[in-house]
């Protein structure tokens, strides 16, 4: 039995959930007529990768149902956490809340040596790690790598209930956290719990 074409599939799935195409367009950050024009007029001819991924996650179907090439390698799924890794005094959090998932290029995931279920994307807040990291940057954290070494590296850490991103090194058997911005406030005192190593950063165009 042939699968319905992506436009028919989208219209059927939306109707089954009781969602209008206008509402789904708004979810994508598009104008209200965007998906209606796609379904009824064939414009755009195909959905963009971002739109297709968001819709497939929301509707609970594979991207191929919405027009992704069947032979395309699957992207590396990575959790997006509702935790701001502060580059300032520290973000107080009660826990890690999963906002959803995003997709990394499989080749990049292999290059970064990421493992399924052991990586996350979080947002940076503050300026204490400038010029390397700016407020609102997003970072990929390898949560399998929690062992800073003598030469140091960028890590997301927790001190008491504060989560932050700092440069962490092993100095004479103890972990030491510092900021890159010399004008930043001192790192809070307390035991350092390492959440993971920063292996990639993403910055929106300014």
From TrEMBL:
SUPFAM superfamilies for this protein: LexA/Signal peptidase
Protein name per the record: Helix-turn-helix transcriptional regulator
Residue ranges constituting the Peptidase S24/S26A/S26B/S26C domain according to the UniProt record: 86-199
Source taxon at top rank: Bacteria
Keywords in alphabetical order: DNA-binding, Transcription, Transcription regulation
Classification via InterPro entries: LexA-like (IPR039418), LexA/Signal_pep-like_sf (IPR036286), Peptidase_S24_S26A/B/C (IPR015927)
UniProt xrefs under CDD domains: S24_LexA-like (cd06529)
Keyword match Transcription regulation: yes
Keyword Transcription among UniProt keywords: yes
Source organism of the structure: Sphingomonas albertensis
